[in-house]
Design a protein that fits this description.
79 residues, 3 helices, mainly alpha
């Protein structure tokens, strides 16, 4: 059951975009004692990367929304 739980976590992290080197490092640390700090460091780094990606996507979304707004305004002026 524990191995299955760990496998699901790694599958999730891989699906979320974590690189293989980080996954391997996490996996290697999993069975060792007193590695929580190192595991947290890896996970926090990945979290920051995900958050950065979200911010970039938000900027793209804002730009698309602005373009839609501009087109609507032009369309209303032509009526």
């Amino acid at each position: 059951m524990i191995a299955e739980d760990i496998s699901r976590k790694y599958h999730f992290l891989e699906k979320a975009g974590m690189d293989m080197d980080s996954l391997k490092e996490l996996s290697a640390l999993q069975g060792q004692k007193n590695t929580s700090v190192s595991q947290i460091r890896i996970l926090r780094k990945f979290r920051y990367e995900l958050l950065d990606d979200i911010h970039k996507k938000q900027q793209y979304l804002d730009t698309v929304d602005y373009l839609i707004h501009e087109l609507k305004e032009k369309g209303e002026k032509n009526l």
